[in-house]
Amino acid sequence: MSHIRIDKRNTTRRGFVREVAAGAAGVAVAGALRAALAPANEGLIAAPGPMIQAPVPGELKYRKYFTTELKPEELEIGYGAMKNMFMVFCDGDIIEGCQFFSAMLMGESATKVAGHGPHKHRDPEVLVALGTDPDHPHELGAEYIIYMGPEMEKHVVNKPSLVFIPGNFIHCPFTVTKVTRPFIFIEAQYAQKDIETSFRDLVPADMRNKYIFIDSDGSSQKGKTMPKAKMPPSAK
Ligand SMILES: [Zn+2]
Question: Which of 15, 62, 93, 199 is surrounded by the fewest CB atoms within 10 Å?
């Protein structure tokens, strides 16, 4: 089995990478990883800095592209209001032009709920699961089950994974069955809003009130409250 080993000794550049990787979000910092894998003379420190134009305080032109710089009323729209569940969330209502994107940290508590019931979206989606142990980046530290197609083909996943879901393709239930270490779960749609149709009839009647089912026509949620849906708890 091939294995990429990142040497963490000595140089400032690598010291930077170590510091980033040590943080909880370290595994998600692709730029830092690229820097670590680049030849030694092309690291971040060696790169020339941009021409800096001092911004006028309080008038940052591009703050609209940062979820951290949006005002609560700009960020807390739709799922953006569910800050106890999503570590980051964005869609076209929150940042104009941005696709639907969510990332959450799933802990042991995720195994206590049935999960998302069968559904399809108008647009394709990708589901990404990442482990959080920098010393064992190829381990997920968790297991989930996802059913695919109207046939309900069962797949068990226990490694870092990307699952591609074509548009108008029935998928789920999605259920987290085991968590030995909290893991990062990302859902990204190829659309600015989630357009979703649920299929309650594909699960036994006694499970229909246990799974999450969402029906969303993709219309703007600006100025509206969240549609009622029982969502899984965030990592604890
Ligand atoms: Zn889906």
Answer: 62
